[in-house]
Amino acid sequence: MTKQQPTGRTRNNSKNHKKEVFKMTKKFSIIGKTISCAVIAAIMAFSMLIPALASGSYAQGSNASNPATAAVTKVFKLPVNTEAPEAAFKFSITPVSVNGNKDTTDMPALGVDGSVTISFTKGQAATFTDNGTQYLVAQSADILGSLTKDGTAWAAGAGIYKYLVKEVRGSGIVRGADPGSEEFDYYSEAEYEIEIWVEEDANGVLFPMYIVAYYIEGSPDEYYPGTPGDGKLDPTPGENKPGTPSEIGELYSQVVFTNRYWKTSGPTVTDPEKNALEITKQVTGNNPDYDTYYEFIVTVVTPSVVGIDGKTYNAYVVDKDGNYVALGANGNPNTASGTSSDPAANYITFTSDVEGTVYLKHGERLVFFELEVGAEVRAFETIENNARVKYTHTFSTEGEFIMPVGTTETWGFPRNPGDVGPHYTIEGAGKNVATFYNNLTGNPPTGLSVDNLPFIVLIGAVIAGFAAFIVVKARKRADHSV
What we know:
This protein is α+β, with helices and mostly antiparallel strands. It has 4 domains: 1-55, no CATH class; 56-264, Sandwich (Immunoglobulin-like), CATH 2.60.40.3050; 277-440, Immunoglobulin-like (Sandwich); 454-481. The protein has 4 helices and 24 strands. The chain has helices at 15-22, 26-54, 248-251, 453-481, and strands spanning 59-60, 73-79, 87-98, 115-120, 128-130, 133-139, 159-167, 182-186, 191-200, 206-215, 232-233, 256-264, 277-285, 294-301, 312-318, 338-339, 346-351, 356-360, 365-368, 376-382, 388-393, 400-402, 410-413, 433-440. A hairpin with a 2-residue loop joins strand 5 and strand 6. It starts with 14 loop residues before the first helix and ends with a helix.
């Protein structure tokens, strides 16, 4: 859809006309100058209006049968893996003035009784997804669609009709569908002024020739960081679905209101079995050492929808029996960031997009409760004692990821190739689990190191050979004595 721009007209006076003016008598010259001043003033006044339409974009009609149209666009943003809630967002369209007169008696009500609504259904699929964020984009019907086209709606006559458009904040989202989670939202604070330029067509019927929108200074939508050009916006309804954030304003009405919604899967009461994310350590194999601590480097990233940089999360270490571990005590190598009252336990603070280190032994878990659905997770185990490590995770790509022989330093996700990611948490308490396994093969029950096993076997062979030699010698002596 091509955004159109109306053009102004210019007027030139001929040289002969100028000569006739200068030949006027003094009396008529005075009258002529007075008229000329009035004309010049009118032209100047009109010229001040023309720049409002001479640049930027706006809606344009041609006659009463084809008037300019306008709509409102709703951008509803959610983190990936978050189910869209049912929502009906309402926008008020309030008359402001007509030709500068604040008496709005003769201004028509737009929309349905002065408002329009944009709705989404529960579980509605995203229009598109970009960089970990779902975008549900929808557009209202033409806000002038309920008006008749016979010109009677414009009772104040030709001129500029101004309206204020804003969202009825706090309306719309139906919450409480998932009692096991916490829900959060943000409503757009944008306000727009819409000017409807009403003219007569060739048949003398009044109609909206132009419609231009302006964001109210100090109240732009987050879709417009800073100043969007000269502030003029095109409210023309779009026809094509966008595929990227930057295309929304090109393919839909530029009167954009952006709302955000996010949630957590962890319960309000911290039950270690109903967490938002857990990193678990398991040791298997022959005669495994359950008391060895293994180092993990863990990073969690807040979804951009939340709109908070550097957000922090408290995580807890839970043992195999479901008890919270006292960090730094009884040989535990972790350093506690603080102690909470619910649960009454130490915690480690993780900052969004910053690596954090934690130590886990067999059966222990690092658990998060406040992490949002759609948060990105990165987790690596430091390789020690040539252990063979594999991991699984229940979110993002599923399956077992076994460390190749000879891997050093760390093993975990994301990694390329095989498990590139990014890895985003899914909905559901206790459903986001990453488990790291150390499989200790060939570990003798005697506690002897497998590194010494070849030498032990060699010594055993020598001893066995010597014993056989003694037996043979003894038999020979017995034969000779007979």
